[in-house]
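BUG: 3D viewer hangs when loading the predicted structure for this chain

Environment: internal workstation, default settings.
Expected: structure renders.
Actual: progress bar stalls at 90%.

Input used:
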Amino acid sequence: MDLGASHGIRFRFETGLLCAVLLDAHGKPPLRLAEALSAEVGERDLVVTDTGDAPEGALRVELRQRYELARPVEWSLRVGVAGRDRGGAVEFDLPDGVALRVASTAPTEPTDDGARVLLPAGPAELVVAVTSEPVFAVGDTVVLCRPEQVREAAVVVSCLPGDRFTPVVALTAPPPEPEHDAPPAALAARRSWRNRVERLSELLTRTGVRRAVVLDGSVVDVVPEGVFADLEHLRLPEGEDLTDAAWRLLRGDGGPERTLSVRPDDDLVAALFTALRTGSALRVAEHAEPVAARFAEVDPDGDEAVLVEDTGEADALVAAVYAHHRGARLVVTPRPDLTEVCRVITQEQERVTESARAIGDAVKGIAVGEALWRYLSTGGHDPFPAVEAAVSAQVPAEVVERVGDRALTAFTTGLPYPFVHTGRANWARKPIGHVVADPALVVLTELHRAATARPPAAFSLVVGTGPAPEPAAGAAHLTHQITLSGPDASLPAFTALTSRLPVELVFLNSHAQDGTILVGEQPLPTRLIAQRLRLAHGPIVLDNSSLPWTEVGRELLRVGARGYVGALWRIPEALAADYARVLARRLTVHEAPAARSVVDTGLPSGIERSYLYVGTVNGCLDRWRDRAATEGATALAACELLAGVARVEEDQALRRVLRREIAALRRVAEEHGLDRTAAYVDVLLEELALAGDPDRAREQAERIDRALPELDLPAGEADRRWAARFELTAALHDRRGDADAALADYTRCASYGDPRRDRPQVLLRLAELEPDPARALSLAEQAHQGLSDRDDRAGMLAACRVLDEVGQRAGDQETALRYAVEGYRLAVELEHEDERIAFKLDEFALRQSTGDLDGAIRVGTEALELCRERRDEHGELAVIGRLGQCHRDRGDLDTAQHYATVGLALAARLDLPVETARFEDFIGDVLTRAGKHAEALEHYRHAVETAVAVGELARGAELLPHLAVGAVRADDPEALWTTALCGGLICEVAERDVWAAIVPLVVDSMKRAIEIGPPRLTQRGMTDFASAVTAGKREEMPVQVGLLADVVVLLLAWLMDRVDANMTAFAKQLDRQTSGVLGLVDFVSTPYARRARAASGDDPRPARAARGATGAPR
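Structure tokens produced before the viewer hung:
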């Protein structure tokens, strides 16, 4: 029996006892153990957990054994080596980066070959923890140099141990910093250079490289900050023999036991390879024997070859070190002239593209390839012979001879070696990997992935037309295909998935007419690869574009790809999908290296030979070494990975894709009988979180309600999932605005005690929704206490905000004030400026409302400074207004007027009419309190007129009574007519509760204005009011406007001394209609001449035209 995740460390039991720890996740042999018990113990609980606290790249798991013992029992574990006591536990440091620790509830002691512990009667627990760190086949030193420093780099590498790969990195100066208006290509070049050095730095750190021999300080002076920063930089001393200096620097005192002398003009790539094979240090000497003979003696005769073009640059040394690491034959060839090769490929590319268009949709599937190559071959012009002739001309016969039938890694400047075809050799079906740039990066990527544990699940990503997903059919290497096509395809979705998911295969099969890659509607030219993509999990990329394969391959590897399969020319999409299907199956199901997977596919040779592989011949996907994975368990693990993306991505199109894929994988788990597991319910919860509509949410909730009761889980585990279920449905109700349903489900969520870490957030939301203020306050205080117990400062800040608001809602000003003060303190501590100001403003308002005016002024002054520091002029305006109120209420009218004047000027500058009206009104109030009624009246008038002019009629209605009272105090008939006119305009559009209060004020202002104003003003006022407010047909007027129109008719008749029985009855009707508040009968019962203060002298009767606006009753 094995316990543990299939992709991690597992514990193996035989006859119920622990016998081994399986470390195949890191490619290590099993750790043999022998567990023993001095007596039968009956059943024991065995639980394996991934602790998640291992160093990056390492694995750490714990096997917990729980006992209920009737009597003491001795437990022992034979490890094979002695351990050491560490505070009651026993620790073992084992070979290959493995550590083991045994601890128990009783003291554990080391033995000669393991550990033992006497377990007491009753409950007992014992923990066996295993940590495994990856062991990379990379040395601890890198050589950083200029490209031309071949001799120096070769000597340094030869002085290092040859049992591991030593990287040689040739660095160049970055492209010039682009100008602001630089073309995109210039930006891309610098980004590409940066990608290269950052990726190299990352790989060196991850593979355990600790130091760098820097042959020229200028090469590291220009790299971005942080690049190579984890490495100790070593410099060779000047003026000494190069070999001796390098040996002392790297190995200490003394000198090398063996040296290999080479001439300055010898092939340094072959010389380094010879030195590594013989364990010698290179020494350059003028009169040394040629290295060729010794190179031939040590060259291996295995089944793998490494070919390198003699470029005369330090990058070529990587080929020698890699060949030695692989035990491969090294073949050095002259640098090819690619001019003719590129010309022929371009010509044939055009022919293939035109031919593919010519056959069109006449045939489908595999027949497309056959028809295409029949068409191309008409007249004896197969596209391949021309390419083969151009390529073969660049490869000497002796090179072809030395490579032979071996699989090949070619370090090349861009020659497609599968097209080597001579009388004695045809490399069309030879597995060939092309390293076209950045050789150290390519090899480090391979060696890093080879020793890294695989993820719990893997994905392939198809953009455009792709192969239909195939059944797993019992395969041990499982990958789930995600297809992005149609509306689902977008560059943001593509980048999110490739950066956040363990995507191991990418197939790009959507292209524009010019061959550029398309992701959805967005082109992805080569230059954008460097700027937009981050392939975080090292996929192999298959691309069907006709972009230059060397350039695309280089950029993809710099952003994280481990390999690239590119086409020399564009292949029809349906046929490319067939090729992708075969390639994916060979890479995954058969776990074949990519270079072997691209040949012998069984497809027409014309299609197969169109593709080349960029990477080493050994590059492959992560090995699923354990062969223990099941399709159902892997599907559930994949669901969890997809859900992890959904938790951080808000793009709705991408979330739709994630929801679709999780549902498909969940059905796979159901088919394999895993629908009664906790992991299955967790997937249902993730689907519920992604539910986009009520019906889907209800369906998922019902699934959970059926599945969760069937699980035999500890109470805490079950409660945690029930709490999550109700929290999710509550949040869905909340988003739809169904407060009652949200409140009910949040309440059920909170009823499960404290099984979820985010329970305080649930309580906070409950407090916000709870209609009972007292209960809301209690819930918020519980949440605050829970967050305080965890010292969750950010959570406490949010709780203070809710407690502040709920306290005010409950009328508990003291509580609200206390949490406003605490919230401000936390906001300062957390440097949360917005909350800092908000809490200070709340404290200000609360102190003002509780009558603590001195405290309010102190806090308000602080708030004013905060607003001015942040240049928050709107906040400043609000604070100024409150400060003015506080000083007014203290009786300090001069200071209050000062603040109001400052506020008025600021509101005018910010063009805020409502605030302008508020400050005008406030100044009027201050002046009124000072007894300056005439001055106050002007401010009241400006306040109302400003609000009405900009259509802020509700605000105008609030200010209107102040103007009316001020006009009466100042005995100003013009101000009373302004009140009436503005009030009438407000009544035209106001709601009933507003105009019901305004109509009596309007009528009273008209009556008072008539009483105290001169006849000419009365005439003008009545005319203006009638034309502005009551013009039109009576039957079409709103009820309140019609009422005012009737009042106008009555007053006009009264002004012209025409109050007869009919008019008196009309006045009584209007008074009954308004419950007597207008007092019209009493008013018109006294003639105008006797009631008006200034009735004599002028003709009081307005123009007759005004009457026609409404008409009069008979």
